[in-house]
Amino acid sequence: MKNLLIVITLLSSFIFSKAQNTYYPQAFFDKKLAQTMIGFGNSTIEGVASTKQKNNWGIKPLLGQKHYAPEGTVVMLFPVTPYFEEFYNMRRKYENRKTTVYMSEEAFKYRIDALTDAHGRFKFEKLKPGKYYLETIVNFTATASYQQQTGQSDAYNAYGGYLYSTPIYQTFFYNYSSANRESKFVEIKQDGELKEINL
Q: Are 116 and 140 contacting, i.e. CB atoms less than 8 angstroms apart?
């Protein structure tokens, strides 16, 4: 019975260690402030959403390839409230493969969405002066490479005696699907201002 209890305890600890940790900001979310900040104005933010391949998850990409957001990609705009600032700072500090930081469902509602066109362009119109945060997830298909030993070259001396071998490697290319989160803070200082950005 004691051994069974130890096994259950160890198994529970293992499952818990693999579980996803979740955090939420503790700051008060002022919905009236958020609603006021995304009220109607005369300013515009427009730009292009794109991403580049990153060397992660063991993938060695062909660096430098730029991928524009596919048509219909959602770009989100949030007012930078004190609540949002805490959310953003927590995400920068804690988020990793095992930890995710979320904002509340109520806070998430106070945003404006725009869709990209076939060239990755998007536009937010009728904005008030203020500070905003834009974010999107860009899905893309890219090419990466890996090397594999396909043979070896043997060296011999003048008498036919073996000296050493040199491995022969061949580079193989393959396609893979991935997604990157792209984001930017944008500040509108005057009503009627046009901001052009690359996201």
A: no
Mean pLDDT, range 108-112, rounded to an integer: 96
Question: Is 155 a domain residue?
Answer: no
Domain count, the chain: 1
> Model's pTM, two decimal places?
0.74
CATH number at residue 134: 2.60.40
Cα–Cα distance, 186 to 47 (Å, whole number): 11
Distance CA(26)–CA(49), nearest Å, equals 31
- Residue that the structure tokens 């596919």 belong to: 70
Nearest to 132 by CA among 89, 81, 199, 79: 79
Residue 173 lies in a domain: no
Give the mean pLDDT of 114-139.
Answer: 96
